[in-house]
Amino acid sequence: MPRRSTLLCLAFLAACATGGTQPSPGDPGCTWAIALHGGAGTLDRDAPAADLEAYRSALRRVLELGRDRLARGDAAVLVCEAVVRELEDDPLFNAGRGAALNADGGHELDAAIMDGSTMACGAVAGVRTVRHPVELARLVMERTPHVLLMGDGAERFADAMAVERVPNEWFTTERRQRSFEAWRQQQDRDNQRIGPGTVGCVARDRQGRLAAATSTGGLTGKRFGRVGDSPIVGAGTYANATAAVSGTGTGEQFLRHTVARTIAARIELAGDDLAAAAAAVVLRTLDRDDGGVVAVDAAGHAVAVYNSDGMYRGIADSRGRFEVAIFEH
Ligand code: ASP
User: Is the CB of 230 under 6 A from ligand 1?
Assistant: First the structure.
């Protein structure tokens, strides 16, 4: 990206004060932790209270699911898949049913999953008939020697895996159709972040294993064949023994700056703590309004950091922390 003038940089840093970080306190006794997101860029703050509450209640429901499974000892990678799968079925979010429409008025879905304890990972890009792309990503991880399958190849793999299939129109909701019409009418085709809501989850389980999963319909009006950051390991999704990260926002920016891996690398190589690493990348490397991440580390700290007006998100841990939020920091 071109460098901005000093003045613009200062304006950007000042603007970041409206973004947020949510560090959890250092806690050696933390046995499990989970953070999830339902996309950066949200409804307006003055949206009807009932609409905002619908998001909060959806986030609470999946956070409870993740909390209960981690508390009973389930593996982080399976918990991440289960949470993302639920969010894929919720039409409020831009993943699975409710996914954004591309420039041709169809859906191409991307997803990835990564088990930080083994570095095993799997991803699919541009799938059109798979109800739960995160499940297919997990099957790529478990049943193939590959990391990423795309388009027709991913669909053919789905045929062999007997995962649930749906017609492409099944993913369309009235709301996404309206976003698509708005995109079609607008002059400034660079501004594609209409109707965000990518979903993601990161977790540390009771065995100390970290994992991440992300699923998205991508950007409204994206070109046919465009792949964003979500299914690209190291950009929108990453987990190793140090940290697990799931991102949401302008995928091209997350790809350019390999956001998820850079956060883990800052902890490993620069000695940052999780909150500092995530803030360095989201608040200083990315541009204002690019989006945000949720992340956990090996000690069970969990953060949600974003530079947009808000991010649908939730964090819970074994110390009793249980929070969902959209705007407030
Ligand atoms: N990161 C996603 C993409 O670029 C979109 C989003 O998170 O809203 O495909």
Answer: yes
Percentage of residues in the chain with pLDDT exceeding 90?
79
| 237-239 and 210-216 beta bridge pairing | unpaired
- Ligand 1 pocket test, pick from 92, 229, 287, 306 with the greatest ligand atom count within 8 Å of Cβ, gives 229
Sign of CA dihedral 220, 226, 229, 233: positive
pLDDT band at 46 (very low <50, low <70, confident <90, very high): confident
Active site residue 173: no
Closest CA to 236 of 262, 275, 265, 210: 262
Query: What is the residue type of 101?
Result: L
The full length of the chain comes to 329
- Higher pLDDT: 261 or 192? It is 261
Compute the C-alpha angle 66/71/77, nearest 5°.
Answer: 50
Using the atom order of ligand 1, give the atom closest to the CA of residue 248. 7
Which value, in Å, is the radius of gyration of the alpha carbons in the chain?
A: 18
As for how many domains the chain has, the answer is: 1
Question: pLDDT tens digits for 250-270?
Answer: 999 999 999 999 999 999 999
Residue 277 maps to a domain: no
* Residue 185 domain boundaries: 32-239
Per-residue pLDDT reduced to its tens digit, 218-254: 999 999 999 999 999 999 999 999 999 999 999 999 9
Residue at 313 is within a domain = no
Q: Is ligand 1 within 6 A of the CB of residue 249?
A: yes
Beta bridge partners of 282: none
pLDDT of residue 197: 80
Residue 301 lies in a domain: no
Which segments within the chain are labelled E, that is strand? 33-40, 109-115, 120-127, 148-150, 199-204, 210-216, 237-239, 243-249, 291-297, 302-306, 311-317, 322-325
Is 44 strand, coil or helix?
Answer: coil
Closest residue by Cα to residue 292 from 40, 17, 16: 40
- Beta-bridge mates of residue 149: 124
Q: 3-state DSSP helix/strand/coil percent for the chain, to nearest 5?
A: 35, 25, 40
